[in-house]
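Our platform keeps sequence and structure together, in a single record for each protein. This encoding replaces a full spatial description with a residue-level series of whole-number codes. We quote a single record here, exactly as it is kept in our systems:
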Amino acid sequence: MCRHLAYAGPATALRDVLTEPPHALYRQSWAPRMQRYGTVNADGFGVGWYAPGDPVPARYRRRGPIWADPSFADLARVVRTGALLAAVRDATESGADGEAAAAPFASGPWLFSHNGALTGWPGSAAGLASGLPAHELLQLEARCDSALVWALVLHRLREGDSLGQALVDTVTELHAAAPGSRLNLLLTDGVSVAATAWGDTLWYSAGPAGGTVVASEPYDDDPCWAEVPDRTLLFADRTDVLLTPLKEPAP
């Protein structure tokens, strides 16, 4: 389900990362090459990006397919940024959430996306939701599983966890409550990127001149792309990438 991507590096136009590469996220909305679940990503899309001097990112999200929004092409042509997170959402059963269910989710300096699904949703999430303060539950943007996953991550960030620790602890909690869930999570604060490979594909490309890209799948055939092993935490900045194996919690 879904495809997502984060970038941190020298300032570049959105289109250089999201629309112009031969297998960019734009094309992945209808022709992903490595997507294991779902076939077309047409139930919404979004991009969040950071402007110089402002730690709070801007977002552009829509409920329809990215190819049906000519305004996005104009936006991608002129907006430049040194950090972004974008996603296209897999076609799912109809619901009322619309744009609110499209990643990236955001709060303060953070942008977040979830590629995957919680098994047994929504019943499997009852215990997870009960552990959150009531006011945080009431702030959920949507009623989908990804919105709850974001609420769990955000709660940990607000408690002082680092990007990577917030993802690891959330994945551990989710796996215990809903075994078999696919939990590829992507998180950035505009400086660093953290991600988990847990049940679906994740790749990265890093270089001292070109910045770092973390994505569900490569957007071109450059040999610099490397696949992240399943059950792994990735932490990256503009030049370096660190991979840490994750142990599956004991039952």
